[in-house]
Amino acid sequence: MDTGLRAVRARVTGRVQGVCFRAWARSEAELIGVTGWVRNERDGSVTALIAGPKGKVAMMVDALWEGPAAASVNYVATEETDLAAPPLRFSIQ
Q1: Annotation says 15 is catalytic
Q2: Of the residues 9, 11, 15, 40, which is catalytic?
Q3: Residue 19 maps to which CATH number?
Q4: Which of 22, 23, 26, 60 has the fewest Cβ atoms within 10 Å of its own Cβ atom?
């Protein structure tokens, strides 16, 4: 049965660390209405897990392409993921 829910893992590359990307992502996720988390990676990228209704997840992925004003996003790679239980909120890790 299709519940209309979706979860994706996104890897964002470019100038995305040191520009408040994680705080911005949490704020956007709360506005859009998705849950998950965001974290910095050692290679300078940012990884996010986004879960929620399909349309809202797509909106959040689109937002990642923009990022905060100080960011310069080069690419957003996504992959579908299965979650036993979606997170209850969006957090910074």
Answers
A1: no
A2: 40
A3: 3.30.70.100
A4: 23
